[in-house]
Amino acid sequence: MGRWQPDAQGRLQQAALDLFAERGFEQTTVAELAQRAGVTERTFFRYFSDKREVLFSGEAELRSAFVDAGAGAPRDATPGDVMIAALDAVATFFPAERRAFARQRHAVIRANASLQERELLKLAGLASALADALHARGVRGPAASLTGEAAIAVFKVAFAQWIADPDGRDLARIQREMLAALGHVTAPG
Amino acid sequence: MGRWQPDAQGRLQQAALDLFAERGFEQTTVAELAQRAGVTERTFFRYFSDKREVLFSGEAELRSAFVDAGAGAPRDATPGDVMIAALDAVATFFPAERRAFARQRHAVIRANASLQERELLKLAGLASALADALHARGVRGPAASLTGEAAIAVFKVAFAQWIADPDGRDLARIQREMLAALGHVTAPG
DNA sequence: GTCTATAGTGCGATAGAC
DNA sequence: GTCTATCGCACTATAGAC
Question: pTM value?
Answer without folding.
Answer: 0.97
